[in-house]
């Protein structure tokens, strides 16, 4: 959807979001954090795991390494041990230590509140940056992760596979004040209903207007 969306496309997009916000009225993240720095690290750790798993390790991590400066000079083996249960622990350890180093060196230990600066940090893509901007500062942003990408494509809100262009298409469909809820609703909905391999189309509240051609039927019991 590279050209401007039509009125009908905007209307359909709004219907989808209205139904989803009824289902997910609380759009804030389930990640627990006390400041932007903690949310940034928690968001990086949340890749390929649940927010609940991240919440189990972050109190211990931030007690041992309270600031970006502390983590920047952290012992990788110690950090690996603390975050082990979130999976991909070696890669994540490297990411958060590098991220801490970048924040200290480039931004004096403070998390920047601008998309262009956030994405300069190693390990921070537009998705993570969008979560932090929307959640901490209420700055309108749409985070496109694997769930948002899949749901937006199946619903026919975009025909693109590139996250930056999907973000652009979704932003064109929704007013800025709804951008944060687009991400959070689509992420929850993608996890619970519009699953990658087994979408639960038979009980989907968006089924009547969904553009996906291979809608799943209820499995035999
Ligand atoms: S009908 Fe199926 S493919 Fe379409 S949004 Fe619902 S679960 Fe996803």
Q: In words, what does this structure look like?
A:
The structure is a single chain. With 221 residues, this protein is mainly alpha-helical. Helices cover 56% and strands 0% of the residues. The protein contains eleven helices and no strands. The protein has helices at 7-23, 36-45, 51-64, 68-72, 76-83, 89-107, 115-118, 126-137, 146-155, 163-173, 179-192. The mean pLDDT is 93. The chain binds iron/sulfur cluster.
Which helices and strands appear, and what pairs or packs with what?
Blueprint: H1 7-23, H2 36-45, H3 51-64, H4 68-72, H5 76-83, H6 89-107, H7 115-118, H8 126-137, H9 146-155, H10 163-173, H11 179-192
Helix pairs in contact: 1-11, 2-8, 5-6, 9-11
This protein binds iron/sulfur cluster.
The name of the CATH architecture of the largest domain is Orthogonal Bundle
Question: What is the name of the CATH class of the largest domain?
Answer: Mainly Alpha
Say how many strands there are. 0
Characterize the biggest β-sheet. none
Q: What characteristic shape results from the CA principal axes?
A: globular
Given as residue ranges, the uncertain stretches (5+ residues, pLDDT < 50) are: none
SS element count, helices: 11
Radius of gyration, whole Å: 19 Å
- Fraction in helix: 55-70%
Strand content: under 5%
Q: What is the string of helix and strand elements?
A: HHHHHHHHHHH
Q: Mean pLDDT score, rounded?
A: 93
How many distinct domains?
A: 2
Bound molecules: iron/sulfur cluster
The CATH homology group name of the largest domain: Hypothetical protein, domain 2
């Amino acid at each position: 959807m590279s050209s401007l969306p039509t009125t009908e496309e905007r209307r359909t997009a709004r219907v989808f979001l209205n139904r989803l916000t009824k289902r997910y009225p609380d759009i804030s993240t389930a990640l627990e954090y006390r400041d932007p720095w903690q949310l940034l690290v928690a968001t990086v750790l949340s890749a390929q795991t649940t927010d609940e798993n991240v919440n189990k390790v972050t109190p211990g991590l931030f007690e041992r390494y309270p600031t970006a400066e502390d983590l920047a000079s952290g012992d990788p083996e110690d950090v690996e041990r603390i975050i082990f249960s979130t999976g991909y622990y070696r890669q994540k350890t490297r990411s958060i230590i590098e991220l801490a180093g970048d924040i200290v060196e480039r931004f004096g230990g403070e998390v920047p509140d601008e998309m262009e600066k956030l994405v300069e940090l190693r390990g921070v893509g537009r998705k993570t940056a969008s979560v932090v901007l929307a959640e901490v500062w209420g700055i309108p942003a749409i985070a496109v992760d694997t769930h948002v990408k899949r749901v937006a494509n199946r619903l026919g809100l975009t025909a693109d596979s590139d996250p930056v262009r999907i973000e652009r298409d979704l932003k064109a469909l929704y007013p800025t004040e709804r951008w944060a809820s687009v991400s959070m609703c689509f992420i929850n909905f993608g996890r619970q209903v519009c699953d990658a391999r087994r979408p639960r189309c038979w009980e989907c509240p968006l089924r009547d207007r969904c553009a996906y051609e291979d809608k799943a039927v209820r499995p035999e019991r």
